[in-house]
Amino acid sequence: MPSLRWQPIATLLLCAAGLGVSIYLTITHFDTHLTLACPKTSTFNCETVTTSAQSHIAGIPVAVLGLAFFIPMIGLCLPVAWRSEDRRVHLARLLLSVTGVGMILYLIIAELFLIKAICLWCSSVHVITFILFVIIVTASPVVLAPGYLQPTVAGDDPSRDGE
């Protein structure tokens, strides 16, 4: 059975980076004395994006939704979660990553076609979420395979194949 060597650490680092950016976006959203460090050009304008009508969904700031995505995702991407024998953990990670990619697709469309400005901070979250999605989707056949981490022979650990 194939093993996961770099995926748990890579996804955890990506989640930490995404959480950091989401915290920064949330702080600047609620603290009116702070402004985002972002260039203001005809194409790039974080302020325009983060204060647009699309910066809230059901009255919730999108930055807060970023926190609501990355906080549980960090738990699901901890190495111990990747080693879990409970398929629900792996399915939750996959479902949350699919939800995250759906959200960023909406936000990218909103930036390009409705707001007509791009926020570099938001774009960094979009890239992080997409890379996270790709890693999780490509690793899911391994972790969702029957018998994942179940020793086939006494003392045999499939998570250490090829070492």
Briefly characterize the structure.
With 163 residues, the chain is mostly helical. The protein has helices at 7-30, 46-50, 62-76, 79-82, 87-115, 120-143; strands at residues 56-57, 60-61.
Distance between the termini: 12 Å
Roughly what is the average pLDDT, rounded to an integer? 90
State the secondary-structure class.
mainly alpha
Overall 3D form: elongated
Beta strand count: 2
The portion of residues forming beta strands comes to under 5%
Q: Secondary-structure blueprint of this entry?
A:
Elements: H1 7-30, H2 46-50, E1 56-57, E2 60-61, H3 62-76, H4 79-82, H5 87-115, H6 120-143
Describe this structure in words.
- The model has no long low-confidence stretch (mean pLDDT 90).
- This protein is mainly alpha-helical.
- The protein has a two-stranded antiparallel ribbon with strand order 1-2.
- The protein is built from 6 helices and 2 strands; from the N terminus they run H-H-E-E-H-H-H-H.
Question: Which properties best describe this structure?
Answer:
elongated
